[in-house]
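Predict structure. Chain length: 116.
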Amino acid sequence: DLEPAGEHFLDRVETLAAVFFRGAVRFFRDDIADGDDFDIAAVRIDAGMDIANPLATILSVAMMMRYTFGQEEVAQRIEAAVRKTLQLGLRTGDIYQDGMQKVGTAAMGDAVVKSL
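Prediction complete.
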């Protein structure tokens, strides 16, 4: 039973994400063999920590608008808002560089919404 708000649904989504993550890591890192195991939990970010980068999720909404709903203009507006936010120098911890402003998940998401 995959009820969107249910815990079973979230468990399955997390498992699916872990499988895709494992495959992506193996694809990009040739030092990890197919039989090797590595700790997925080491990269887990729990809700409420305000450290996750929301930009991939936001950009996936742009892709959904473009390819699922045929809403090219909406997709372009979302992508432009992400670009503008990055041009303002805002960065979550995973992409932070000297000279930029480090922000959390909520602040990054709010900044993108403000840039729409």
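Summary: The helical segments are 7-28, 55-68, 72-87, 105-115.
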